[in-house]
Design a protein that fits this description.
This protein is 37% helix and 16% strand. With 427 residues, it is of the alpha/beta class. The radius of gyration is 32 Å and the shape is elongated.
Length: 427
């Protein structure tokens, strides 16, 4: 009788930690989506140049999604230049030719990596519908597309529009933003920089693309090594004569632009995410004023037209000193800021009369009984001139005196942004 054979279990294979993590969930191996957000104008080549430059970094960076923000005129240029078949490109569009040039071919893809990471099978470098800046139209009660940015209202609308585009990307923890400020009007690039500063994260990037001559101005150049051979350009002195430039000799560099992410400041100070662009900018200004004011020790003479800012003495004209004393008196009493210059005229007039009455009798040398307190402030322009003159004298004095300049009144705020305890009034 045969003895039954027993099967011994083989020890479980040791799985490396990284492999075990991969087997738990494919999501664990997925990297964040890279989103390229670019502002463009009438020169859409900055978009193709930026994509090409990213693809030739070490390691290469291929955006998963591409979002373009532009005007109505800019959209027309994009459609004409990037998305119309070009005979020299074998009837492909410029965008198709760019994707063929920078995306890995099926032969170079890692099939094993695709199985472990399903995200790698999702098409990359996908351009989303062009986003045209819009502004509210009071006449129609609808928004309208902006053909250009020319007025302060246009710039304000563009700022809010760009802020919403950036916010929609950075609030998703599974995305990484690369913002390009190379295109469009300079205003658009400046606003995009401000938006990254206001709501961007430490992991996001802000870039600018640089191209060597003559390719930086050569019409028909899109990226180095583009198909179609040399690019012809007519000579300025002789339009009938042409010279050609080989696109393989073009040099495209990508420069990272540093920015300071303030999103954590808003969460800490406001207890909520950041709001509209203008509100955020004003909040930042207020924080700067508050920080500046808290570091100031201001001494104001009453019998003489002189002040001292952290040890730096500044002489003022009687009219200027009168306005500053009015601001100081309100700050010492903890009174709120007056909303506008025009609203400050009447309270200042009342203060002027009280100050004149306080002048020592029969002391004709005391400035408080002189011409400065005898002349009325007619309107807000008188106040603006006085405040502007004070600011100029602080700048001329330099040194610590400059610390007081941001605390002076400005548009929408007539007050002295210095805490009362930091101000000393001398008789």
């Amino acid at each position: 009788m045969k003895t039954p054979r027993t099967r011994t279990k083989s020890p479980a294979p040791q799985v490396p930690p990284s492999t075990a993590s991969d087997q738990k969930s494919p999501i664990a191996t997925q990297k964040s989506d890279v989103v390229l957000l670019a502002v463009t104008g009438m020169s859409p080549a900055v978009l193709t140049e930026t994509v090409w430059a990213l693809a030739h970094e070490h390691p290469p960076v291929i955006p998963d999604r591409v979002i373009v923000v532009t005007t109505a005129a800019g959209r027309a240029g994009l459609e004409r230049d990037l998305f119309t078949p070009v005979p020299a490109f074998n009837n492909r569009t410029v965008w198709q030719a760019l994707r063929d040039a920078v995306l890995p071919t099926p032969k170079t893809r890692n099939r094993r990596s695709e199985i472990r990471n399903p995200k790698s099978q999702i098409p990359r470098l996908t351009l989303e519908p062009i986003r045209v800046i819009v502004a509210p139209d009071s006449a129609t009660g609808r928004t309208r597309e902006l053909g250009d940015l020319r007025t302060p209202a246009d710039n304000e609308a563009a700022a809010d529009f760009l802020l919403e585009q950036v916010r929609a990307i950075v609030e998703n923890p599974d995305t990484r933003l690369i913002a390009s400020l190379a295109g469009g009007r300079k205003t658009m690039g400046a606003l995009l920089y401000a938006c990254l500063t206001l709501v961007g994260r430490e992991t996001d990037r802000l870039t600018h693309v640089l191209v060597n001559e003559p390719f930086d101005t050569l019409r028909g150049f899109w990226f180095p090594g583009q198909p179609g051979g040399p690019i012809a350009k007519s000579e300025i002195r002789n339009p009938k004569s042409e010279i050609s430039f080989d696109p393989t000799t073009a040099v495209v560099d990508l420069a990272d632009v540093p920015f300071v992410p303030l999103r954590n400041l808003f969460q800490r100070e406001l207890g909520r995410p950041a709001g509209r662009f203008g509100v955020l900018v004003e909040f930042c200004r207020e924080q700067v004023r508050r920080a500046a004011g808290e570091g100031i020790h201001l001494t104001v003479e009453q019998s003489r037209c002189e002040i001292e800012v952290n040890g730096t003495r500044v002489k003022l004209a009687p009219r200027e000193h009168l306005v500053l004393l009015f601001l100081v008196s309100r700050a010492k009493r903890g009174e709120p800021a007056i909303g506008a210059y025009a609203e400050a005229v009447d309270p200042l007039e009342e203060f002027r009369e009280q100050l004149r009455a306080s002048a020592p009798p029969n002391d004709f040398a005391d400035w408080r009984g002189g011409e400065a307190t005898r002349s009325k402030f007619e309107d807000d322009q008188d106040l603006r001139k006085a405040v502007s003159s004070i600011r100029d004298k602080l700048r001329s004095a330099g040194g610590n005196a400059l610390l007081l300049a941001p605390c002076l009144p400005e548009k929408g705020r007539f007050s002295l942004a210095v805490p009362g305890p930091m101000i000393h009034l001398k008789p």
